[in-house]
Specification:
The chain is α/β, with parallel strands linked by helices. It has one domain: 3-Layer(aba) Sandwich (Rossmann fold), CATH 3.40.50. α3 runs parallel beside α4. The radius of gyration is 17 Å and the shape is globular. It starts with 11 loop residues before the first strand and ends in an 8-residue tail after the last strand. It binds NADP nicotinamide-adenine-dinucleotide phosphate.
Length: 256
């Protein structure tokens, strides 16, 4: 088990995008740790996820499932003012929010395929939702060490872009990185022990990557459980002095 300095046996952790894929694997990994008291599992359909229901049977009240659409500010307000009422501090928040080919987003091969609808859908979930989540959770991140990490993607790196394509996804993740970096500066003024990280989880076998797995070289398609452990390693290895930076699953920095 990797050491995560901001956690302790009473720690509250919130995963947004928890009902499947990497978010579900993070919930599973965190519930198995003895330095996590409470896991808040947030997704649009957290309440009907069979996998989260199985975890709830096993871990009882340590897991709280919350339906919330993070693209909707009213829904985020309710999350903080009603659902999380009584929780005064989140030690760790991980946003796994992201779409590539779902909910109107399109992985464009060229400019001819680019549409306003795809750009808007990608930005709504990949960019706007995670930063609005951070905005609404701010009051719960002002005390003690706390980390807000969002899953970005290496393809959001401008310096690393040699292949082109995937306009909406790339741009939405690049914009997410800028928003996270900007927020890291503000959060540091409010809480010197805060950390904001952008993390690339590696290509992982989930619904998001499924149509594109044919091109992945042998050994480079990860199980969600493996990615979750690597993400927690990256979180544990990076504290306030690294706030506002971008890391890959293997602990290597990624250029903006
Ligand atoms: N998989 C990869 O190869 C890969 C590679 C690089 C980066 N990433 C990034 O890693 C993250 C996780 O990806 P994944 O592969 O685990 O995706 P996934 O399997 O499609 O899961 C996405 C999760 O987000 C939730 N979600 C989607 N929209 C939401 C919203 N508006 N409000 C609340 N929850 C919402 C979904 O649950 P509901 O539908 O129940 O709401 C689901 O739990 C994404 O940011 C992705 O860009 C993935």
């Amino acid at each position: 088990m990797s050491l995560i300095p901001e956690l302790n046996s009473d720690a509250h952790v919130l995963i947004c995008g928890a009902s499947r894929g990497i978010g579900l694997a993070l919930c599973t990994a965190l519930l198995a740790r003895d330095d996590v008291g409470q896991v808040w599992a947030v997704a649009r359909k957290a309440g009907t996820s069979a996998e989260l229901a199985t975890l709830a049977q096993r871990y009882g009240p340590r897991l709280r499932r919350v339906d919330c659409d993070a693209r909707d500010e009213q829904s985020l307000e309710t999350l903080v003012s009603e659902t999380l009422e009584g929780c005064d501090h989140l030690n760790l928040v991980i946003s796994t929010l992201g779409i590539l080919h779902q909910d109107g987003a399109k992985p464009e091969k060229g400019l001819a395929q680019l549409t306003l609808a795809s750009l808007q859908a990608s930005f709504a979930t990949n960019t706007f939702a995670p930063i609005l989540l951070l905005k609404h959770l701010m009051p719960l991140l002002r005390k003690e060490p706390s980390t807000f990490a969002a899953l970005s993607a290496r393809v959001g790196s401008i310096g690393d872009n040699r292949l082109g394509g995937w306009y909406s996804y790339r741009a939405s993740k690049a914009a997410l990185n800028q928003l996270l970096h900007t927020a890291s500066i503000e959060l540091k003024r409010l809480n010197r022990a805060s950390t904001v990280l952008a993390i690339h989880p590696g290509t992982t076998d989930t619904e998001l990557s499924r149509p594109f797995q044919g091109n992945v070289p042998d050994g480079q398609l990860f199980e969600p459980g493996f990615s979750a452990e690597r993400i927690l390693e990256v979180v544990g290895a990076h504290g306030p002095s690294d706030s506002g930076t971008f890391w890959a699953w293997d602990g290597q920095p990624i250029v903006w």
